[in-house]
Amino acid sequence: MFTTASAETKKISLQKSKAWKCSVCGYIHKGDEPPEECPQCSSSSKEYSELKDKQKLRYDGENFDVLLINGSSHRGHNTGVLVDLAEKALKRKGVGYRRFNLNELDIQHCWCCYSMRDSACTYPCRNQLDDAPALHEMIVDSKAVIVASPINWNNMSARLKDFLDRLTCLQNLYLLKKEGLTTGKVAGILVNGHEDGGVKTVMDIFLYFQQMGYVLAPFGFTYITHGAQYNAKADNDFFKNDERLKKEVEGVVSNVIETMKLDLETKLKDKISPVCE
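-> structure tokens emitted (277 positions)
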């Protein structure tokens, strides 16, 4: 009887324990708190969220100005520092914004419908199975976007590239001789990394937005690297405490806001000739 009761008690205890999911690798941890370090990918507890039924992302239609995107695989690490600083600056200036960490969303690879025929790539996107369509709607309704990315192999993160690839349906409007929905919107870009590749990563990101008619705010990007001689822990401490980084991120946000106030979308309407790839 004692063994049976003990087993039953253990079963009830397990049923009551919480489940936590790593947003980087998907590992599931059972317990009252997430692990300090993910046993599968070594991410910190910041990347864990309590496991609940995930709802597909929907856009509620409420107006806001800036779409803030964390393109890193780690929402709470180095790139997250930049996004946190940008978010604080937007709050201080009273600007409406929406923040999204891509590692919390379901963004599938682009189906490349346009490679079958140009007209097959449409807006709204033909792939309505993930969270990208809601982000598309927000891009159309917002006035500006601020994107942050780590430097991975002298380029943006794979997560961010998947998201940017999914913007093809908006860019393709110009190729189909339809009215563009993004001409004159404003872009700002934040990049950080361990070694070189800052400017290249910025330009690789901006190329997507340039092809959609976005305008890069004057002094609209900043990048910061720490150096190959330091380890990952030293990088994180540096990015959290560097005063120059704080000043430059705030500057980019301010420049995006001031450019946004010019309302270039309205002023450039019907005056721009789309020249796309």
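Residues 243-260 form the longest helix (18 residues).
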